[in-house]
Specification:
This protein has 7 helices and 7 strands, in the order αβαββαββααβαβα. By secondary structure, the chain is of the alpha/beta class. Helix 2 links the parallel strand 1 and strand 2. It catalyses: a (3S)-3-hydroxyacyl-CoA + NAD(+) = a 3-oxoacyl-CoA + NADH + H(+); (3E)-decenoyl-CoA = (2E)-decenoyl-CoA; a (3Z)-enoyl-CoA = a 4-saturated (2E)-enoyl-CoA; (3E)-hexenoyl-CoA = (2E)-hexenoyl-CoA.
């Protein structure tokens, strides 16, 4: 939603400007990282300059480490947010994917560029062209996530953020 995009942008800018902040952790709410964009918003006029692609680039260009704590699902734009992060930790039951192709769309926030850089072209093409959701264990094998945990994903992400 526009509110989430604006909060991400505001939070990242505030964290980058605050010398007491050493790292940033991005998580979802209620056991879900993000199921992606609300497709109803695709047909509405663009909001005043708030778009996912530039926010993912802002995450990626942060001078401070940014860690994604992935629980539940990270799909579509949600996975693209995670791809912009410097590190990704996922709960063992998490699932990730770029399902936009199943409704005739390509990922629009540079997921088609970031995913192949991270996991290689063959695996990325499979995910991008099929819309398949992969479990955290497969994401770890592919290099999509840095670590999987069975317990508190947020605590693990904070621990990693403090370590790096």
């Amino acid at each position: 939603s526009l509110a989430v995009l604006q909060a991400l942008e505001d939070g990242l800018k505030k964290a980058d400007a605050d010398p007491s902040v050493k790292a940033v952790m991005i998580c979802g709410e209620n056991g879900k990282f993000s199921a992606g964009a609300d497709i109803r918003g695709f047909s509405s006029p663009k909001a005043h300059g708030v778009a996912l692609g530039p926010i993912v680039s802002l995450i990626e260009s942060s001078e401070k480490p940014v860690v994604a704590a992935i629980e539940g699902v990270a799909l579509g734009g949600g996975l693209e947010v995670a791809l912009g992060c410097h590190y990704r930790i996922a709960h063992v039951k998490a699932r990730m994917g770029l399902p936009e192709v199943t409704i005739g769309l390509l990922p629009g926030a540079e997921g088609t560029q970031r995913l192949p850089r991270l996991i290689g072209v063959p695996a990325a093409l499979d995910m991008i062209t099929t819309g398949k959701h992969i479990p955290a264990t497969e994401a770890l094998k592919l290099g999509l996530v840095d670590e999987i945990v069975e317990e508190n994903t947020i605590e693990a992400a904070v621990h990693l953020a403090n370590k790096v």
